[in-house]
Amino acid sequence: TRLILATRNAGKVNELHAILADAGLTYELVGADAYPDIPDVKETGVTFAENALLKAHALAQATGHPAIADDSGLCVDVLGGAPGIFSARWSGTHGNDRANLDLLLAQLSDIDDTHRAAHFACAAALALPDGTEHVVEGHLLGTLRHTPSGTNGFGYDPILQPEGMTVTCAELTPAEKNAISHRGKAFRALVPVVRDLVG
Ligand code: ITT
C-alpha cells in the first residue's frame, strides 16, 4: 500500500518511516514531493488538529491514497498559547526560524523563570480517500530559556528545555529528541490507527 505524508520535509518522512518500521508496518511511504502538481492546501484551521486534517484530506483526495499530515508549533503559557499555529511565521516570514525565535525571546524578556512554561504540540492526522479520518496529538512540556543553546534540531529547539532536563532540545541528538518529542509521540500514537484503517 502507498501511504502519502503531506510534507516536503525529508526529515519527517524518514522519522515516520522508522516509526512504522519499528511497528512492523511496511508501506511505501512517499512525501508530497512525489506529487509536484498538487498545490499545497491553505492552512485555514484554527487548531493544530484542524490544519492537520485539512492537509491529510486534501492529499488523500488528490492522490487516491491514504495520507498522513502533521501540524505543530510552540505554545507559551504566558502568551495565552501563542505562537501556536502561527509558530512558523511568528515574525512575518514563513520559515525564518531565527527571526521567529528572536522575536519570541524579545516578547518574553520581562518574564522571569517561574513564568516561562511552554510546550511543543503536534497533531497528526490520517485521512482515507473515502473521507474516513482520525487525528491524534502529542505534547512536549518544558520551560523557555532566556538565550538559545545548542545547534541540533530546528525552529524553537534552542530555547525549549524539556521538563526534568538541564539541556535544550537543540542539545539532544535526533534520536533522543524523537523519543520524547511531540511529533514522535503523535506519530507513534497514529501507528495503531494506521494499522486499523489502512490494514
Ligand atoms: P511542513 O512542510 O511539514 O508544513 P513546517 O516547518 O512549515 O513544515 P510545522 O507545522 O512542522 O511546519 O512547524 C511549525 C513551526 O513550529 C516550525 O516552523 C517551528 O517554528 C515550530 N516547531 C514545530 N515543531 C518543532 C520542533 O520539534 N522543534 C522546534 N520547533 C518546532
Describe this structure in words.
With 199 residues, the chain is an alpha/beta fold. It is built from five helices and six strands, in the order E-H-E-H-E-H-E-E-E-H-H. A hairpin with a 5-residue loop joins strand 4 and strand 5. Helix 1 packs across helix 5 and helix 4 (174-180) packs across helix 5. The longest helix is centred in the last third of the chain and has 17 residues, at 182-198. The chain starts with a strand and ends with a helix. Residues 7-9, 12, 71-74, 87-88, 97, 100, 120, 153-157, 169, 181, 183 line the site of inosine 5'-triphosphate. Residues 7-9, 12, 71-74, 87-88, 97, 100, 120, 153-157, 169, 181, 183 line the site of inosine 5'-triphosphate (ITT).
Please write out the topology.
Elements: E1 2-5, H1 10-22, E2 28-31, H2 48-63, E3 67-76, H3 97-107, E4 117-127, E5 133-144, E6 160-162, H4 174-180, H5 182-198
Parallel strand pairs: 1-2, 1-3
Antiparallel strand pairs: 3-4, 4-5, 5-6
Helix pairs in contact: 1-5, 4-5
This protein binds inosine 5'-triphosphate.
